[in-house]
From TrEMBL:
The lineage of its organism: Bacteria, Pseudomonadati, Pseudomonadota, Betaproteobacteria, Burkholderiales. NCBIfam families: transpos_IS66. It comes from the Bacteria. InterPro entries: IS66_C, Transposase-related, Transposase_IS66_central, Transposase_TnpC_homeodom, Znf_dom_IS66. This is IS66 family transposase. PANTHER family: BLL1576 PROTEIN. It comes from Acidovorax benzenivorans. Residues 37-110 form the Transposase TnpC homeodomain domain. Residues 117-159 form the Transposase IS66 zinc-finger binding domain. Residues 466-503 form the Transposase IS66 C-terminal domain. Residues 173-459 form the Transposase IS66 central domain.
Length: 510
């Protein structure tokens, strides 16, 4: 709003005060908008050029970070080489102690001996010791064939023939062993290798199995493994506390050759529930109806416990139907972290200090039982959060609406009851990081999948990945786990299927 100077002379004092008030409102609005845009610009730059996480976790490196690590190693080598050329000849470089290679790896010896063991003086030398240096080698996989020879035994007198029956197999009359099937599944769903890449890898090993054949094996195994995934879901829904999260995955539209955004939902029993498991659910959209269906709402077996989730509106119908909402303190902290990273906000800095105090207490109570954890939270965490809430309320009155600071404060204040519910229940975790860590491998693999070919393909992927990731959570090698259960499933009693779940599994030879 622009006012001509000559028109100001004709305004009364009351009109001038009213005009000044309107101009101040406009200035505050523009200031808040500028603050918002500056925050968004800094956030977008950080998303594009900086690390995607608040912490530099070596297990979450991107491909770019891998290249940076390689460059750092190359520079370090060049510096070492330069230092050696400039250092005195008598100086010795202190070598870092290298960990020995694993003892279980097979070893082959390569002897390096002098061509002659006679000294220049003519005497025969004696061996007085040796130096050993180990180097790690790798040989690509090699196919082999199992020849199952079943002898036929005949009785000449009664003219009968006896022969050992064929063992049941997950693919009836199929040529792959369960080891090969496990390798294909782990390659596709754990190592994120599409079947056309596996076809090339197998070709280099001596037998290029067509991807159409590999796809048939994957489809059959998905069907055979589904009862185990259903049992894992039933077991998970038997717990009072659940984590939930979702991540987008592209899915091909049948007949159109285009993709649309589907979602992979993840559910896991609470971090303190005493069970390590995760169940993925592939759905065509992000509609909250999918979460209601998974949790059985609308049936007589509806799950009604404590659900740790973010502020996504899709969970609101569950909350309205009796599910207890538990907020994620890490999400609230992240709002202030982004604010502080963008403009070094003092408000954000103070909030981050208080969140750090809460998390320090949580690290100390992690190994305690439920009652002890709740007692410590009531005594130590409650006063910190009460003071933080009062401080946030006062700060909110002083910042303009629509600013980045206001949004960060509003997120916490609006969800304060859900965010602090963990203080009154020792069985509840402080945040939703438990399930976010289980969904992270899916986000990494998404770069290699490109898209899910169909709804069924996405659901099959979700089923197999549920077993693979649950096996990892329990410290099992996914290959060994899948190979064993694929061997045992054809003859295993359906009533005892829970014995094969990852958190209860024991190898057959154990």
């Amino acid at each position: 709003m622009v006012v001509a100077p000559q028109s100001l002379e004709s305004l009364s004092a009351e009109q001038l005060r009213e005009l000044t008030a309107r101009l101040m409102v406009q200035v505050r609005h523009q200031s808040a908008l500028l603050d918002k845009l500056t925050h968004e610009n800094a956030l977008l730059k950080r998303m594009k050029f900086a690390a995607q996480s608040e912490r530099f976790n070596p297990e979450q490196k991107s491909l770019l970070e891998d290249e940076i690590e390689a460059d750092l190693a190359a520079v370090a080598s060049e510096i070492d080489a330069l230092a050696q050329t400039q250092a005195p000849a008598t100086s010795e470089k202190k070598q870092a102690k290298r960990l020995p290679l694993p003892a279980h790896l097979p070893r082959r010896e390569i002897r390096h001996e002098p061509t002659s063991t006679k000294c220049a003086c003519g005497c025969q030398m004696k061996r007085v010791g040796e130096d050993v240096a180990e180097k790690l080698d790798y040989v690509p996989g090699v196919f082999s064939v199992e020849r199952h020879i079943r002898g036929k035994w005949a009785c000449a007198r009664c003219e009968t023939i006896q022969q050992t029956p064929v063992d049941a197999h997950v693919i009836d009359k199929g040529i792959p062993t369960t080891g090969l099937l496990a390798q294909v599944l782990v390659g596709k769903y754990a190592d994120h290798l599409p079947l056309y890449r596996q076809e090339a890898i197998f070709g280099r090993a001596g037998l290029a199995i067509p991807r159409s054949t590999l796809a048939q094996w994957v489809g059959t195994c998905g069907v055979r493994l589904q009862p185990l995934v259903d049992a894992l879901k039933t077991e998970s829904l038997g717990h009072r506390v659940l984590h939930a999260d979702e991540t987008p995955v592209a899915m091909l539209k049948p007949g159109e050759g285009k993709t649309h955004r589907a979602y992979l939902w993840a559910y896991a029993p609470g971090a303190f529930e005493g069970i390590k498991a995760v169940v993925y659910d592939f759905c065509e959209s992000r509609s909250g109806e999918h979460a209601r269906r998974f949790l059985g709402h609308g049936t007589d077996k509806a799950w009604k416990g404590s659900l740790i989730c973010d502020d996504f509106s899709g969970y609101k119908a569950l909350i309205a139907s009796g599910v207890t909402e538990v907020g994620c303190l890490a999400h609230a902290r992240r709002k202030f972290f982004d604010l502080h990273a963008a403009n070094q906000s003092q408000i954000a800095g103070f909030a981050l200090q208080q969140f750090a105090r809460v998390y320090e207490i949580e690290r100390g109570v992690k190994e305690l039982d439920t009652e002890q954890r709740q007692a410590v939270r009531q005594q130590q965490t409650r006063p910190i959060l009460d003071a933080l809430h009062e401080w946030m309320t006062l700060q909110r009155r002083q910042v303009p609406d629509g600013s980045a600071t206001a949004k960060a404060l509003d997120y916490s204040l609006r969800r304060w009851d859900a965010l602090t519910r963990f203080v009154d229940d020792g069985q509840l975790p402080v945040d939703n990081n438990w399930i976010e860590n289980q969904i992270r491998p899916i986000a990494i693999g998404r770069n290699n999948w490109l898209f899910a070919g169909s709804l069924r393909a996405g659901q099959r992927a979700a089923a197999v990945m549920s077993l693979i990731q649950s096996a990892r959570m329990n410290g099992h090698d996914p290959y060994a786990y899948l190979k064993d259960i694929l061997t045992r499933l054809p003859t295993h009693k359906a009533s005892r299927i829970d014995q094969l779940l990852p958190h209860r599994w024991k190898p057959a030879d154990a």
